[in-house]
Amino acid sequence: MSKIQLLSGPAVDEALEQTAVRHLIRYQINPATLGVLLILGGVCFVIAGYIWFAIGLGGGTTAAFIGTLLVGLTFFSMAAFWGNFRNNRFIAISDDHLFIGEEEKAWRVHWSLVDRESLNFDQMQSSRLRGSIRLETAGQNIDIPLYTPFVYIEDLEGLMFELLQRLDAEGGEAPVGAPDADVDEKELFDESEDTEDQREQQ
Q1: Where are the domains of the chain?
Q2: In the β-sheet with 90-93, what is the strand arrangement from edge to edge?
Q3: What is the pLDDT of residues 126-161, one digit of tens each?
Q4: Which of 11, 30, 104, 122 could form a disulfide with 7 if both were Cys (CB 3.0 to 4.6 A apart)?
Q5: What pLDDT score was predicted for residue 183?
Q6: Rounded distance, CA 8 to CA 102, Å?
Q7: With contact defined as beta carbons under 8 Å apart, do 93 and 161 qualify?
Q8: Residue 139: phi, psi to the nearest 5?
Q9: Is residue 201 predicted with pLDDT exceeding 90?
Q10: CA 151 to CA 30: how far, in whole Å?
């Protein structure tokens, strides 16, 4: 059996059932930003309705009607995309494999392929708007989203702990700066410098 496989359809559920998953990590919706998308989409539809019923179509109003309708549909489509992302995306961890993907299509990666070089924490993308890890192994690039303005991993600390623990167990070599790994992870949660100073004093 290949150490890395792209599973699809029923094969995803079958693999999860046969592997004895011990940690299933899901994504959560950010209700504030998703609410903004829905409100903006609703406002656009109200404006389009006003143009249609109160002003009437013709000349510039036709273009305005079509434009506001398309913008409203875009906002609703974005809300639907992230809602579907939250419902389908997952990360699953077993003793032998790491699963990354969706309920209908997911990667199954043997832990022997997950090491310091393939995860490359030094190149982890982290900003106010997006955070992700890219697993580059066996000729495949697998993106692991951590958070966006609309969704976020419900147990980021648990995921990072599992990955760092696995790297220690597999190769005996943690990523560069491993002693500071806990600090790096806490920075993703915007923990203050004062809290870190107090811990150092203890």
Answers
A1: 4-29+95-193, 31-85
A2: 4-8, 105-110, 97-101, 90-93, 23-29, 151-153, 140-147, 131-137, 125-126
A3: 888 889 999 999 899 999 999 999 999 988 888 988
A4: 11
A5: 36
A6: 9
A7: no
A8: 80, 10
A9: no
A10: 5
Write down the pTM of the prediction.
0.75
pLDDT above 90 covers a percentage of the chain that reads 55
**CA 202, CA 197: separation in Å to the nearest integer?**
9
| Phi, psi (rounded to 5 degrees) for 23 | -150, 110
pLDDT in tens, 181-199: 343 433 443 443 443 444 4
At 119, list the tokens. Answer: 């995860």
